[in-house]
Write a structure and sequence with these properties.
Keywords (chain B): ATP-binding, Cell membrane, Membrane, Nucleotide-binding, Transport
Number of helices of chain B: 9
GO molecular function (chain B): ATP binding; ATP hydrolysis activity
Strand order of the largest sheet of chain B: 5-6-7-3-8-9
Order of helices and strands of chain B: EEEHEEHHHHEHEHEEHH
Oligomer: heterodimer
Strand content of chain B: 15-25%
Protein name (chain B): ABC transporter
Number of strands of chain A: 0
Radius of gyration of chain A: 20 Å
Organism (chain B): Thauera propionica
Number of helices of chain A: 13
Strand content of chain A: under 5%
CATH topology of one domain in chain B: Rossmann fold
Radius of gyration of chain B: 19 Å
CATH superfamily of one domain in chain B: P-loop containing nucleotide triphosphate hydrolases
Order of helices and strands of chain A: HHHHHHHHHHHHH
Structural class of chain B: alpha/beta
CATH class of one domain in chain B: Alpha Beta
Helix content of chain A: over 70%
Shape of chain B: globular
Number of strands of chain B: 9
Largest sheet of chain B: 6 strands, mixed
Distance between the termini of chain B: 46 Å
InterPro entries (chain B): AAA+_ATPase, ABC_transporter-like_ATP-bd, ABC_transporter-like_CS, Metal_Ion_Import_ABC, P-loop_NTPase
CATH architecture of one domain in chain B: 3-Layer(aba) Sandwich
Helix content of chain B: 25-40%
Largest sheet of chain A: none
């Protein structure tokens, strides 16, 4: 049994790299996912993950499968879409979801077009589905650096960000932190999506952000517990997904996200905030 | 006694509105420091709009608001419904402690004394024992008490309250009115939008009766007369979609607000997507 669980990681360097990548993603991307969830921006995270595709594709078109070019391209494309959508939201009658949807759909179409113009299908698959089992030193360092930066930024932004989520009008009234918190957070989202896309691909990068957060939200009452639990769920799902991929010979990215999904469904059934508990008869209610 | 204090707020020919339609039209007046003012008027009279303008959330279409003696950030504004996300996992203690922002800022920790002040504020609004409850579990009245506790900690010399008693039971209203009277005794300036005229007569020395146009402003007994109230009702009725342009100008002091740096220090921040001022 222990051999079954441990030996893939002790015997194979690529599994160890994948494990390190999952840990970094769990520590960096998942807390960002928690705030996406709390800001009711889960689907926007999904939209933005698609928006980074053309940037990565352009980087690929210009420089081939170069880590730096694709990363910078992805970050730039993500930021452009975020800023453009923000601008349209404030200057027109469209709400943020509509303007973001418009930009990300265009962005995604452009990305697929660019990739198919020059690349082979295999490359497209690589961009869309990532390659957690083939992380080289550069990618791993990138993911780890982004996780580190994210944790520092979240620690700095924590109080303004919580207030921006909970009561933005109050934060605007007492300070000028509101735009800093909002745009700083969006930048963290873009950074982590780029980091996630190296491992899991653009389509599934959001999976490890949102699913563990949603599962943890069903269990936790307070924010610190919620963050800790989400990170734990994400890392456990990463490990399980990698083992599943190793032993059953299935692609690792989808395996990780599917395990996140299993955790989510179990939480949905068993957690205090889930489907069942609220419907069970209360045997002894409290006095007050 | 004291010499006549200078006005804390000077309103000069102020016009506030949405899409060029004025909701507050050519308002003038001085509000002295330490005043307790009830802002009254029919629905749609521009009461909330005036408070938004004073709080810096809404930029004037014309005229200006001057608060020369008020340091930046020394204004506490309680919007009518706020944008509070009730499902957010924070405790009542955390929410009330947000009132200490001016002291602790984005990074400072809470000292033991500050924690005690949070607990005292909760006790003052009758919410002792609710510290660790999630904010979403509070009833409407309890939530309003918590927002008042946060106001206590904000310790602002100017407090703007937009319909603080809407949909609140009478016992809570009585407690909150006591808090407002305490603030008045402490020398703070309080502007409150109120609907219950009986309450205004009993507790508020000064009243501002609005009906898009200013109708009356002064001692409550002189404002709340049947004649004035009838006039307010008459004025508020018409809202003409194709209203002609208004060209009333005062000879001076009608410069646009953005040329006046001391009008407001804040309110230039961005607005989140769910917030829309066009009602």
């Amino acid at each position: 049994m222990i051999e079954f669980l441990v030996s893939p990681f002790t015997d194979f360097a690529f599994m160890r790299r994948a494990l390190a990548g999952c840990l970094a993603l769990a520590l960096g991307a998942t807390p960002v996912g928690v705030f996406l969830l709390l800001r009711r921006m889960s689907l926007m995270g999904d939209a933005m993950s698609h928006a980074i595709l053309p940037g990565a594709a352009l980087g690929y078109l210009a420089f081939g499968l170069s880590l730096g070019a694709m990363t910078v391209g992805g970050i730039v494309a993500g930021l452009v879409v975020v800023l453009a959508a923000g601008l349209v939201t404030r200057a027109s009658v469209l709400k943020e979801d509509a303007s973001l949807a418009a930009f990300y759909l265009l962005s995604l179409a452009a990305g697929v077009m660019i990739v198919s113009l020059r690349g082979r299908n295999l490359d497209l698959l690589h961009v869309l589905f990532g390659s957690v089992l083939a992380l080289d030193d550069g990618s791993l360092l990138l993911i780890a650096s982004i996780a580190t930066v994210t944790l520092f930024c979240l620690a700095l932004l924590f109080r303004p960000l919580v207030m921006e989520c909970f009561d933005p009008a109050f934060l605007r009234g007492v300070s000028r932190w509101s735009p800093v918190a909002h745009y700083g957070f969006l930048m963290l989202v873009v950074l982590n999506l780029v980091s996630g896309f190296h491992a899991l691909g653009t389509l599934m990068a959001v999976g490890i952000m949102i699913l563990p957060s949603a599962a943890a939200r069903l269990w936790a009452k307070g924010l610190p517990m919620l963050l800790a639990l989400a990170v734990l769920f994400a890392f456990a799902s990463g490990v399980t997904g990698l083992l599943l991929s190793f032993h059953a010979d299935v692609p690792a990215g989808p395996a990780i996200v599917l395990v996140c999904g299993v955790v989510y469904f179990i939480s949905l059934l068993a957690a205090p905030g889930g489907l069942l508990v609220g419907r069970l008869p209360v045997r002894h209610h409290l006095k007050s | 006694m004291h010499p006549v204090p200078p006005p804390l707020i000077r309103i000069e020919n102020l016009t506030l509105g949405y899409d060029r339609h004025p909701a507050v039209h050519h308002l003038n007046g001085d509000i002295p420091a330490g005043a307790l003012v009830a802002v009254i008027g029919p629905n749609g009279a521009g009461k909330s709009t005036l408070l938004k303008g004073l709080a810096g959330e809404l930029r004037p279409i014309g005229g200006r608001i001057l608060m020369p003696t008020l340091p930046p950030g020394a204004l506490a504004y309680l919007p009518q419904r706020g944008e509070i996300d009730h499902s957010f996992p924070v405790s009542v203690f955390d929410v009330v402690a947000m009132g200490l922002w001016r002291e602790v800022g984005a990074f400072g920790g809470l000292s033991r004394a500050q924690r005690q002040r949070v607990r005292d504020a909760l006790a003052a609004v009758g919410l002792s024992g609710f510290e660790s409850r999630p904010i979403g579990s509070l009833s409407g009245g309890q939530l309003q008490r918590a927002r008042f506790a946060r106001l206590i900690l904000q310790d602002a010399p100017l407090i703007l309250l937009d319909e603080p008693f809407a949909a609140i039971d009478s016992r809570t209203v009585d407690d909150l009115v006591q808090l407002i009277l305490d603030w008045h005794r402490e020398g703070r300036t309080v502007l409150t939008v109120v609907h219950d005229l009986e309450q205004v007569r009993r507790h508020f020395p000064t009243s501002l009766l609005l009906s898009r146009e200013p109708v009356a402003f002064g001692p409550t007994a002189q404002v709340l007369t049947p004649k004035m109230l009838a006039r307010a009702r008459r004025l508020s009725e018409a809202f003409d979609e194709d209203a002609p342009e208004c060209h009333i100008e005062l000879p001076e002091g009608s410069a646009p607000a953005e040329s006046e740096p001391q009008v407001h220090q804040h309110g230039h921040g961005h607005e989140p997507p769910e917030h829309n001022h066009r009602h």
